[in-house]
Please model this.
Amino acid sequence: MIILGIETSCDETAAAIVNDKREILSNVVLSQLKEHEVFGGVVPEIAARAHMEHLDSIIKAAISDANLTIADLDGVAATCGPGLIGGLMIGMMSAKAIAASQNIPFLAVNHLEGHLLTARLTDNLTFPYLVLLVSGGHTQILVAEDVGIYKRWGTTLDDAAGECFDKSAKLMGLPYPGGPNLEKIAKNVENPITAYDKFSLPKPMTQHKNCDFSFSGLKTAVRTHVDNLPEGDLAPKDIADLAYVFQDTVAEVLANRSENAMKRFIAEYKPINPTLVVCGGVSANQTIRTKLDKLATSYNFELCAPPLKLTGDNGAMIAWAGLENLRSGKTSPLDFKAKPRWPLDPRAEARHGAGVKA
Ligand code: KG4
Ligand code: ZN
Model:
């Protein structure tokens, strides 16, 4: 079974081909970094125009890199939500056109499902497993019970972790994209103890026994520290110290929330080989991985984190989720509508103030 996957929900134009032997035959990602850099963040209209301009050639490249022709495809998947509607429409309509012209199934994929099923592509993981999904738009803890069956145990009440990285980086004067740049700068810390003495930050939600998150207070605390520094350009040492403390604090919060989830997972599922999957763009962060790895070991969990080329948005995760859906008999009609909001667990109760992030 050979599936083409298309990803256009945010600022990556991506297409990839995977097969049911868990092989990635091609994986083409065009990042729109340059287009959005001057604005310090993703501009939806610019993103949609860039997807429109590049998607055809990215799909062609994915097919030719895999040494295939369009006639070899058994299905075509596209991210149909959640995400920016302009980009979603472009990817979805291209996939529908290919499906209609080749008379093959169309598979509407939830972007978050793409992130959380990647562990089955890379590590052949079996259900159920626990998931910490940390991206630019979402921060959630879920249990993946089966393809299409996800229980959401926690979500953010305000900003997502990636969003908090990006906004805090901006406050520190770091260029877009904030997350990876902040991680790079944090490595320049000279003395973590004095950094903590100078810039302590709150650890939101850690006093609660649940699995929810809140990051807006953390961002505000970063702003207060920056405002309290002497006027003018921030000193590189201050930026490195603040970036270090910020990153370490986010990692602590994510580990604290995951710990509650791990205890609950053990109690409710009694798994033989318990696994915590960390996925989404923020899961590229090494400090976060190290902290989660330590935590997992202490609870006899396996930590499963995707290889770095699959942490950020890509077509392979969408192709794989499409393949899993097709194998489970779940295809989508050609009149499927893109969903800017598309909760993975429709039964999860809305959190007060969670807005579109739930
Ligand atoms: O999953 P993703 O590529 O797109 C969404 O679905 O949102 O995640 C993007 C987010 C951005 O906020 C980006 O700053 C963050 O992931 N990110 C990182 C790192 N690499 C990407 N955050 C912290 N450390 C990193 N190394
Ligand atoms: Zn993503």
About this structure: The radius of gyration is 20 Å.
